[in-house]
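Hello again, I could really use a second opinion on something today. I've been staring at a protein lately and its backbone has me curious. Please have a think about how the structure follows from the sequence. I owe you a coffee for this, so here goes:
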Amino acid sequence: MMKFFTSVVTSCKDIAGKLRNISGKANGVVFDNRQMMQHFGFISIPKAGERCLFLQFGNVVIAVASDGKDRPAVKEGETALYRKKEHYIILKDDGTIAIKAEGGVDVDGDLRVNGEVIDKVGKLSKLRDTFNQHTHVGNLGAPTAPPTQQDTGV
């Protein structure tokens, strides 16, 4: 016989970086240090107070945690990895990826782009074209005097 318990998380712990043990309480029934199952490729540790579903099959209890209040909006066919509405990665149905990270994005390693890089002011290729057309007059290897007020217009 299978039983379902909608619960509130009381604690969730990372065990050796591989497993999650979750505890919760539902309708007077306490589930303590039960293994939490998660989707392949996704890992999280829910906070106390978030919702959880415990499934009980005899002596076996499986827990699945969820948080409906802080999810970003996604369309049918899209997938999101998120912590809250304002902090997410969304794999969009149109083939693009939306990333929102208030604190910025850190890349550890090389970044390779096969396409255009565009920021708020335009395309990086336009900046590159302007840079490539830039030349210096004179011998770049020879020492030069610092600019004068006449040179700088100050």
About this structure: Residues 70-104 form one domain.
